[in-house]
Amino acid sequence: MQLAQATLDAQVAADQTKATVEAKAAEIQRAYDAGIAFAAAGDWKKAIEEFAKVVVLEPGYKDAATRLAEARISAAESAYQRGLAYFDLERWEQARAEFEQVIVGDPNYKDVQAKLAEIEARLAEVRVLTPTATPTITPGPSPTPLPTATSTPTPAPTATSTPAPTATAAPTNTPYPTYTPYPTHTPYPTPTPRPKLPTPTPWIIIATATPQPTPTAP
């Protein structure tokens, strides 16, 4: 029972070690490949960072140490050239920043120390020639005094007697016009009676019997 547990523990430890070794190898390879890519792009700062990781994890890995040294030299030369360009343009602050990057990798690189000393001298001259501007305090505007409140006496109104308006006489009543009577009504003429029609004579129909002839005997 104990033997089986010990064997299981050993197997687990071996697997963990293998996983750790594989992860480390993968990280080393990734950093090495990244360093080569950054160096090809001229990004020496990042190339140095990646090659430095490789050397820390495995100092003898391929040519990582050589590539790291070459990247540092290239980075110093690149910064040195930028510093010279700024130096010729008399842009002293930018030139000093570039030369300071050079001495981080190699303090004795070419004449970088002499360049830094000359830059400091030039900056000192500029400080002397440029007077420090003394801030001028401009007095603020004087406060405007508030107007003094003066009481102006209000003149009393003068009593004036306004005469009462003269009574206007009422207008004379205009009499109504005299009534004109309507003309006298002329009576209509008396209608003439119609003549009486003659009394119709009644018709008398007398029936007369015509005697029939007496038949003759044969």
The CATH architecture name of the domain at 9-129 reads Alpha Horseshoe
Strand content: under 5%
- In angstroms, what is the radius of gyration? 73 Å
Name of the CATH first level of the domain at 9-129: Mainly Alpha
Ends distance: 193 Å
How many separate helices? 5
> What is the third-level CATH name, the topology of the domain at 9-129?
Serine Threonine Protein Phosphatase 5, Tetratricopeptide repeat
Order of helices and strands: HHHHH
**What is the strand tally?**
0
What is the share of helical residues?
A: 40-55%
CATH superfamily of the domain at 9-129: Tetratricopeptide repeat domain
Whole-number mean pLDDT: 77
Overall outline: flat
Describe the largest sheet.
none
Q: Structural class of the secondary structure composition? A: mainly alpha
Q: Which regions have little confidence, pLDDT < 50, spanning 5+ residues?
A: none
